[in-house]
Amino acid sequence: MEILIYGIVNSVSLALMALGFTLVYGVSRLPNFAHGSLYVTTGFITWLLLQRLGVPYLVAMLISLVLIGVVGAAMYHFILVRIRGMSISEIIASYAIGLAILEGLRWGGLKGTTHTLPVFANGSVDILGVVVDYHRLLVILLGAILVGLLWVFVNRTRLGLALKGMAQDERAALTLGIDSDRMAVMSMALGGVMAGLAALVLLPLGNIVVEAGYHVLIMAVAVCIVGGLGSWTGAILAAFLIGFAQIFTVAWLGPHFQVVVALLAIILTLISRPSGLFGRQKELEERV
Amino acid sequence: MRKVTARWSLILALLFGVCLAAPSAPALAADPIVLGCPLSTAFLYGWDAERGIRLAVEEINAQGGVKVGNEKRPLAMEVIDTRDLEPGVPVSEALLGVEKLLLEKKADFIVGGPVRSEAALAAMPIVAKAQKISILTSGSLTPKYSEMVGQQPDKFKYLYRISGEAKWMVTGEIIPCLEQIGKKYNLDRLAIMVQDVAHARAGGAIIAKVMASKGWTVLEPEVYPTGATDFSMGLVKTKNEKAQVLLIWMDMPETSILLKQWNDMKVPALPFGSIIAAAEQPGFWAATEGKGEYCLANVVNAGNAPSQATPWTMKFVDAYQKKYGLEPEGYGASSSYMAVYVIKDAIERAGGLDPEKLVAAMKATDLMGVYGRIKFDPKTNQVIPSLDPNEGAVGTIFQWQAGKRIVVFPPKVATGEIMLPPWMTAGEKK
Fold this sequence. Notes:
By secondary structure, chain A is an all-alpha fold. Chain A has twelve helices and two strands, in the order H-H-H-H-E-E-H-H-H-H-H-H-H-H.
């Protein structure tokens, strides 16, 4: 039972970490390697507003989400737009931005274990003999709500449909009057907000440390590669595959093998199915 | 013309003033003695050491400096971030830092690190070759370090360690403390969680072996990678296997996550941090919203938490608090502070910086410090530990109780008693 419960918690956490990354790639074909830094920055801004300036928790969260959305949009508008379409340059530039943000935060004083956010609800509940705290249950609930809202946004709103159109065929979308750069800015902003939402939901379980940025990036990349770059269904499925594989590994082999799981998943996927579970990129390239 | 003359008069007057002021600070005019500090400054065991060293340097300089023969020379600090506590950073990074301190910064002494055991061991030949006195003060706890000095005493005669080492910590402090807890509350089932680094794996293995030989039931140690953020399965196992004490040996900041999870899951096992970086810091209570209450933490040497171990202990704690606005934070603070005073003492007795004379002076060190009597083992150059501050360097194990760090071991410096969390006293206590 504990494997089932903590497997779901771990999987939803991974899905939350990866959704922003896959959203940006799905729409603008831009691998945002600054994703982890946006995650940590959101946590740090919220912490500053809450602990240093005494802003109410909910207001602090909303402000940081808006700010991180602006940061995401600004990254595209001022830097990444200039190298659009040059994959390697996009990876290098976005990773460099992320690195600068994370190490800048460390230089600015984000070190140690004292930067934390309060949990949404204190206490725990016994589910068939397994004690789970309320916040972890909320992670599952909020994760499910977030995925649902994202689906509604993409499939039922004009902006979402425009983003989807861009993801499917940029040239066709352009002929229909959809501004590709504007949509890419929007996707980066949304990706930032998604990274921020993941941070606000997950960081109260631990502490805000620079290393979390690198960890989140690795996990997001692993989930997206296994699921298929740009595929949201694939990302969610991959999050559950890797999440449960990690929990099984901890339970049966030992916790120090859990890091290997995500990296092994990347290698195995690239060998057996290079496009990932739901990705079609490689297949399309081969067909061409 | 009048303006130009006035300007020149002002410059001359300033120069004259500087010349007059210079003789009033003779110590600062002399060449400084450079302390090279290779430290992983982004981490607790790096920055606490840096702060301890800086505090001592400023105190000594305020008193005129170190007496070298007939003159007084100031101390200067050169800090290099070795990053050796960061996950994934290779040992070579720390070695480059040490070399830079020796070759570029012209360090007269190496004080502090490297902090990670693996890096400290790798740096030994480099420092020994440079014939500079080195004092390890923070981080590295591996017994291998003093063993290597003992095996090649002539080659490594320049290398000393003033903080604790894992073997004594385990046999002299942690195991007696565990036995004390076991006897007091009738507990005998132990779970162990360690970080995947040399000193933690070794420490966990020794504790498992010794406690098993003392009749305790010891679960298979769980080894976590550096940077692990989820401990739920290990805690579920601890609970299911009915462990009563949870021994933790981890120096990564994520240990606060472990303690939050422990509290959330109400695991009926007393958390005992042989090394537990997060719980050592004074800010831990606020950061975990009090969820770390009842956690025991070993801060290796007295002075890293308030106690009355020696008359100097609270003087140091107060001075640290006055300068940095909080109590000493990690296990590298008091030992790093004392290392500077030991160097000062050795230089003054040696009468200079001659390496051989300094080695003789270091070996003859006998100083009543912040955490007891400081003397080095003549064979291994390891500070001689004790449970009595009048006999040797004394350690400190404290427990978080109602927002305060209460020293509970060793008995000679204890200021309170060990308590169990309420969900243990309710039904799990045998």
